[in-house]
Design a protein that fits this description.
The complex is a heterodimer of chains A (423) and B (355).
Chain A (H helix, E strand, L loop, with lengths): L1 H23 L6 H6 L10 H5 L2 H4 L5 H4 L26 H9 L2 H7 L7 H7 L1 H7 L8 H5 L19 H9 L2 H4 L8 H5 L3 H8 L8 H5 L12 H5 L4 H9 L1 H8 L5 H5 L29 H32 L5 H20 L5 H57 L7 E2 L1
Chain B lengths: L1 H8 L1 H10 L1 E3 L8 H21 L9 H10 L4 H28 L8 H23 L4 H15 L5 H9 L6 H33 L5 H9 L5 E4 H26 L22 H12 L3 E2 L2 E2 H17 L11 H26 L2
Antiparallel strand pairs in B: 1-2, 3-4
Helix pairs in contact in B: 1-2, 3-5, 3-11, 4-5, 5-6, 5-11, 6-7, 6-9, 7-8, 12-13, 12-14
Classes of the chains: A mainly alpha (423), B mainly alpha (355).
């Protein structure tokens, strides 16, 4: 019985390999490229372009998607009899890619760690839903991954490499003509380029910093709902979210249907959150909802005073430590304390999301205590510097006195012709 | 007390040569002070080095912290360490100045060839002190400078790699390198140097101070003009004045610009951009940077090291090229001296301004 089962499995394996040997197009010659390299775009596919494609590198050829017989140099190669499918209809592209990419057994041969849920995710995306309704202007696989020169996302030349994702999305989403009829803005890319996330990703080169897909998803791309915004932000900003979840603002925001973090920090154009967000003026965010003079306004003013007070204290200590350092004094311990104070300031800024004065004050006081020690260290270093300089002055006077004394003594023992005797 | 000691040790007899010793006096006599100042700075190095040893710990885990402790917690530790570092630099400077003054005044000529030879070895030992001592605080700059320096040693043909492994105590600069450098710095080099300093001083004592050729010729023409002063007390008191001035300069440097500590070495961190060695190695480092990667069939760096090796050897043997008065050898030595000063100055300045 079990021998029959083994025989059956071997037979099934042979069929599978035979099928995908055809799909992978283990070709001895590729007549597709021979012709298409000399055609004009969009039919042009050069050998250079195709060899950069991850599929070609893994031994998968044109037939995998387009069918046909590339070993036949005649036009019969592109006959229906040879399984030629021609240009793939946009509506069919996700399903075609999915025949391999949604097949765990097949993908395991090439990249066991690659996910195989792209097709099902795509079905849940705005792009996928609209495509299902017949809208062929929405993005399908090739719009983001390109075609015939698809590179893995870790390749910096790939259109879906973290550094290039925003640019790829912007090809459609920043094009007012293309986006006409979708009633969503087209300034996301411009705003993103001014954001702190863009700075982190592009300027600082931190590839873990957010780009479009980090918040919206990639294959399942969709705008996060009002109630889900905090879940998106909290994937990185964990503590801020924990504070916010326990705060009185959570219920108030829900009641007013406000989208959590985005309400104060905005979304695509999110800038570095400075203490100015707590100001009463146009830069501040609190007074968009609160009234001047109410208890929340007073709390806002207290938060701002506490944070700016600690920030100023750190700057004062930093300036004094700089003076001491430029005088050659060793102040590494005071610098360590200053770092600790900066950490406390950062912590206080995070604690603001609890909107509880006693918690924020606790962090600010801790920072002020450490800053006082750091300032003391700087003052002690400067006092020590002055002491050394006084010591130097006294020593130099003593040395000069000895040198002068020696000179006078030499003059005394060599009265006329100093130290000279004839040979 | 004196008579008590004299009775037992024969002090008068021992000090007789000192009383009889005299120093030629002429317009170039002030160059004689350089050797004494270098010796004084070496003595300061020994004294401050011993004081630093009381607190310094030669291991990768503790070296930086122990120097930090010396700089911040030990009473006058900052002064001792700063003087040790500044005196090291001043000593190498005065040793170089002494060497060039001897060269230009032709004080190396017969019978003082061995004095020159021992002096040159002492100069190389001073550079060895500088190289081994630089690593001891175990800070970032020292770590990477040692890495680069030992890598260059590794390029020497045939023996380079083995020498590098010996210096580093392995393939990489680690705590083992620090321990070795500490051993070289506080035991091996001081032992050899002390012995050679004694030999150098004995030779100076035996042959006396050399009189520059121009002065010698003048005195030979009119012997009545020849002048000299007694070593003790006349010359000694002048030397003492120079030592006091050197002490004042050291104190001022230590108080106004204490030697920095930097950040603790992190072997896994990338090397800081534009890393450069200490000023006395800069002319060699800059030369190696300027030589193309390949010169004919030779690796550029190997060629540079070979050239410096040959130049060093020729430099040690310079007195043997200057055999005849007014001969070609004499002009060659003078030309080599002028070229060396100009080259070292130009390459050092270039090394500082180049990125």
């Amino acid at each position: 019985m079990w021998r029959n089962r083994i025989a059956w499995r071997l037979w099934a394996g042979a069929v599978f390999l035979a099928l995908f040997a055809g799909r992978s197009g283990a070709q001895t010659s590729n007549t597709c490229i021979d012709c298409h390299s000399s055609l004009d775009p969009p039919l042009q596919v050069t050998a250079d372009k195709f060899t950069a494609d991850i599929h070609a590198q893994k031994g998968l050829g044109c037939t995998g998607c387009h069918g046909g017989d590339p070993s036949d140099p005649s036009m019969d190669a592109m006959s229906k009899a040879r399984g030629f499918r021609g240009k793939i209809d946009r509506k069919q592209i996700p399903a075609l890619c999915g025949t391999c990419h949604a097949n765990g057994d097949f993908m395991r041969q090439y990249n066991p760690s690659l996910r195989t849920d792209q097709l099902s995710q795509y079905g849940t995306s705005v792009h996928g839903k609209l495509l299902a309704k017949g809208d062929t202007r929405v993005a399908v696989c090739i719009d983001c991954h390109s075609v015939h020169d698809i590179r893995p996302s870790r390749d910096s030349r790939s259109t879906v490499h973290p550094l290039n994702v925003a640019q790829t999305c912007a090809r459609c989403h920043a094009d007012p003509e293309h986006m006409k009829g979708y009633s969503i803005p087209t300034d996301q890319f411009a705003k993103y380029n001014t954001s702190v996330h863009h700075d982190a990703l592009v300027v600082r080169g931190d590839l873990s910093a957010p780009t479009c897909t980090t918040c919206h998803g990639n294959h399942g791309a969709a705008p996060p709902g009002v109630g889900a915004v905090h879940n998106v932000c909290s994937t990185c900003h964990v503590f801020q979210d924990q504070m916010f979840q326990k705060s009185t603002h959570k219920a108030a925001f829900q009641a007013a249907n406000l989208p959590g973090c985005v309400t104060c920090h905005s979304n695509h154009g999110i800038t570095h959150a400075t203490d100015a967000k707590l100001e009463a003026g146009p830069q501040g965010v609190c007074m968009q909802c609160h009234k001047p003079g109410d208890s929340c306004d007073q709390a806002r003013a207290a938060f701002l005073k506490g944070l700016t007070g600690l920030d100023e204290a750190i700057k004062d200590a930093d300036r004094l430590l700089g003076v001491a350092e430029s005088s050659g004094m060793e102040v590494s311990q005071a610098r360590l304390e200053e770092d600790q104070a900066r950490d406390d300031l950062t912590k206080a800024r995070v604690t603001i999301h609890s909107f509880r004065k006693e918690l924020v004050d606790q962090d600010i006081q801790a920072g002020l205590n450490v800053t006082a020690k750091s300032l003391q260290g700087a003052q002690a270093a400067l006092a020590e510097r002055d002491y050394r300089r006084k010591g130097l002055g006294i020593s130099l006077i003593a040395i000069l006195a000895v040198v002068a004394g020696l000179w006078l003594y030499i003059r005394q023992i060599e009265p006329k012709s100093p130290g000279v005797s004839h040979r | 007390m004196r008579s008590w000691l004299d009775e037992r040790l024969g002090l008068d007899e021992l000090l007789a040569p000192l009383r009889e010793k005299s120093v030629p006096q002429h317009k170039l006599s002030h160059w004689y002070f350089l050797g004494g100042i270098t010796l004084f700075l070496f003595a300061i190095q020994v004294c401050t080095g011993i004081l630093l040893l009381l607190y310094y710990r030669p291991s990768a885990g503790e070296a930086f912290e122990s120097v930090q402790y010396i700089m911040t917690r030990v009473q006058f530790g900052w002064l001792v360490r700063s003087i040790h570092s500044w005196a090291a630099n001043l000593m190498i400077f005065t040793a170089f100045a002494h060497m060039f003054s001897v060269l230009f005044l032709r004080a190396y000529r017969k019978p003082r060839e061995l004095t020159w030879l021992s002096g040159m070895i002492l100069l190389f030992l001073a550079l060895g002190f500088g190289f081994s001592g630089y690593l001891l605080p175990w800070n970032t700059l020292a770590f990477f400078a040692t890495k680069v320096g030992t890598e260059i040693t590794g390029q020497v043909p045939f023996i380079g790699h083995r020498t590098m492994i010996f210096l580093r105590g392995g393939e990489e600069v680690t705590g083992a390198t620090l321990t070795r450098f500490f051993g070289f710095h506080v035991a091996l080099l001081p032992g050899i140097t002390t012995f050679l300093v004694l030999v150098h001083l004995l030779l100076v004592q035996k042959f006396g101070m050399s009189v520059p050729t121009s002065v010698e010729e003048k005195w030979r023409a009119s012997p009545g003009e020849a002048k000299e002063m007694k070593f003790f007390p006349n010359f000694f008191l002048r030397e003492l004045m120079a030592w006091y001035i050197a002490l004042g300069v050291l104190g001022a440097l230590a108080a106004l610009s204490p030697w920095g500590l930097g950040t603790k070495a992190d072997p896994f961190a990338p090397a800081p951009a534009g890393i450069k060695p200490e000023w006395y190695f800069l002319f060699m480092f800059q030369t190696l940077k300027l030589i193309p990667a390949k010169v004919w069939f030779l690796d550029g760096e190997v060629l540079g090291i070979l050239l410096f090796g040959v130049a060093g050897l020729i430099w040690i043997l310079l007195p043997f090229f200057d055999r005849k008065p007014g001969g070609r050898g004499r002009r060659m030595v003078l030309g080599a001296g002028i070229f060396a000063v100009a080259y070292i100055l130009a390459m050092t300045v270039y090394g500082y301004v180049a990125k």
